[in-house]
Amino acid sequence: MMTGLIVGTAAIIGFLQYRHNTSVHIARETERLNFTVEKSIYFLDEILSAAPREVLFLAGAPAVEGIVRAHKNNGIDPVDGSSVANLKNRLAQIFTLLTAGDPNLLQVRLVAADGQELVRVDRQKQDIVRIPDNQLQNKNQRNYVMLSHNKPEGTVRFFGIDLNREHGVIETPHMAVLRATTPVYSKSGEYFGLIIININMNYVFNKISNLFDRNNLLYLTNSNGDYLIHPDNSKAFGFDIGRSFQMQHEFKAIKSFFTPNAPEKLTLKTADTNGENLAYLAKYRYDQSNPSHFLAVAAFSPITSLFAQGYNARTQIILATAFLALIGAILAVIYSIYMLRPLSTLSKATELLASGASLDTIEVPIEQSNLVGSLSRCFIRMATTLKEKETSIKAILSTASNPIITIDSAGVIHEANDATTQLFGYSREELVGANVTVLMTDEIRERHTHYFGQYQERSKSETSGTARQVVAQHKNGTIVPIHIAVGEISLHNQRMFTAIITDLTELKKLDKMKDEFVSTVSHELRTPLTSIKGALGLLDSPVLGELPEQAKSMIRIAHNNSDRLVRLINDILDIEKIEAGKMNFTLKEIELSPFLARVVDANRAYALQFMVMIELSLIDENSKIIGDPDRLEQVVTNLLSNAVKYSPKGGRVFVTAEGRANTVRISIRDEGSGIPEEFQKKIFSKFAQADSSDTRAHSGTGLGLAISKAIVEHHGGTIGFNTTENNGTTFYFDLPLTKAKTEDAPTAIVLSA
Amino acid sequence: MNRELKRITYVEDEPDIRTIGELALTKVGNFTVDVCSSGAEALEKTPQFKPDLILLDVMMPGLDGIETFRSLQNIPETAGIPLIFMTAKAQKHEIQSYKDLGALDVIPKPFDPMTLAKDIAAIWNRMSDE
Hints:
Distance between the termini of chain B: 8 Å
Helix content of chain A: 40-55%
Strand content of chain A: 15-25%
Number of strands of chain A: 26
Radius of gyration of chain A: 68 Å
Radius of gyration of chain B: 13 Å
Largest sheet of chain B: 5 strands, parallel
Structural class of chain B: alpha/beta
Shape of chain B: globular
Largest sheet of chain A: 6 strands, antiparallel
Shape of chain A: rod-shaped
Oligomer: heterodimer
Largest interface: A-B, 26 and 22 residues
Number of helices of chain A: 20
Mean pLDDT of chain A: 83
Number of helices of chain B: 5
Distance between the termini of chain A: 100 Å
Structural class of chain A: alpha+beta
């Protein structure tokens, strides 16, 4: 992996560097070719621009003028009397001095109009030699002579460049020669002849060639494209020896360079039989008399040789990459030995620990001084802490007084603490792995599947904290009442349930004792009360004879209060049962209409004592509810009793039953003084009455509304009230209907009191 | 059973209540009443009293009302005599358990001496109608 990364990175860097190098090479080479060609032209110009100056200077030399005059004056210059021979000597001296001063000058001549050489100085190796008159030749057949005759004065013409010939034979070794001519005229304007200089181009060709290194190719052609310089020497001056070699034929891409209107300079890439080349070409126009004459200098750089450097660089990069990769691989091997082996050990240790092995038996590379060592030490600390925590939790579980068991979603017991084994009589070994149903009674076992299924369908947040009371079974068959609180945890992606159990055996015993106590106390209270109430009842009646009115009044007070005491005892017993969750409800279907009529009738006599009328309105006489008729009667009676007691004399109490969507609302409305605001919040609390005087004034126990609320809520209903001070109070309770309302239009029945 | 209720055996250990109950039954209800102060006395005397109805307290020292009732059921002369319990232990479930034993009904204590006779007569008539 790491080796691959190193090699890959190096290869990418190498490739990018190679591409960069290539473009840089091309740009740099183009620049270099450009420079070389321009420098070549500079050298050519240095020589060729001197030629016109030199021929014009010689044509105007006094010796030439003297010779011209002498020729017309029978060999004697009329100006100073010099002979032609003398004048020729003087001219030869000038030719010699000029030739000595210009190393490129090969030959300087004065040629007569008939083509005969008159004065000629040659450079012969190191010497400058005047050719004796008897060796002078007639050159009238030569092209450069014929074409130069009679041209206007001051005209300079160039001929060549071609190979020098002596007596019509090409001189060897080859010498490239450029000839420059200018006509000579007498003062009177008669044509006399020509000044001709031969310029040795070999010298400048060498100078130019030296500008090129071995990787670049120099080509020099004339205006026709004929090679003057070619890397293959045999192709140079081919036109002069009967074999034409032209640049435009060799390099097709530059054919247009030799056509009229072609650009002066050209940079291009060529691709032909010579391979791929980077080329720079420029024209040098040296002949003022004939602008179509030029020399073309071309510098070629073969791409292959150019990229040979790139290939070298590429090879170097590949080698460097390979080297880097090798270093990387070695490092990776070292790294794997140094890091991966201890890491592998640590990984194995983790797996072993996870599978339950003891920390003491596991090899962990803690002695390493690197990161792995640090990681290993952390691992040991973590494992130790975990072990300590596990031990601590186990100790807590083991010593917990509550039985705690953990089961999986199939009901299989995974863990059970000591308290569990003590409570149920099974050993831990018997419990772990067994199904939790072993702890259940037959009845509970049947229901368990249903309950457990419900549990599974619920989310964790719903199941956690679920608690209920059930009965379990001891190994010996004894029934054990328990309270069970279930929490859910997720372990290895599996839902696990932890149940904390509370043994309710003792609690149940205590509860039973309390029940008996309450029952006994209430009996013990009722026994004397029965006597008191009975005695007072008889005294208050005519059965035992008439009493004085005042005594009767006292007896009545005592009698009423004994009644109140009875109600108080009954209410206290009810409250005690409600709070202990032991109030029994015998549920049955109740037809609301006859039920309310009966309860209202039973309370009419009581209401009449307060001179209050009760009116019953039933909105829907077919409404049915499920409930305990005795308990609901207790509620209605309580609410009626309150309404009656708080009504003004002659007032009315309205009882209505009004069907709603899924509920029925039973309302008891009075025309009393309303409930003071400060009392409204605590009205359903125990022993709540508007003020302390009320207890006496209205002879209530202060428990009625608390009991009513508990009964209504036990039926799945709600109880409430609306009140306006001095404008009556409506108490209502809503109970669920057992069936939808009938399709009949609501009917109202008013039963008279 | 269209028989008129005339004679009642009233069993009550508490003398004050016994006095008031007897008064209520005789003076208000105009019944003929034989009183017993314990279960044992009731077992001994009831066969001789030949009452139409037995009114029996539950919580009594010695034989309590339940045991007395069961014993009376085992005496041929008293086995078929209708019986009403009169007790302070008259919570809903307790009342049901007395009825389950075979009692006609239960009158809770404290009772109203002025309505006691009427309540008993109502129970008697209801039984007669069935």
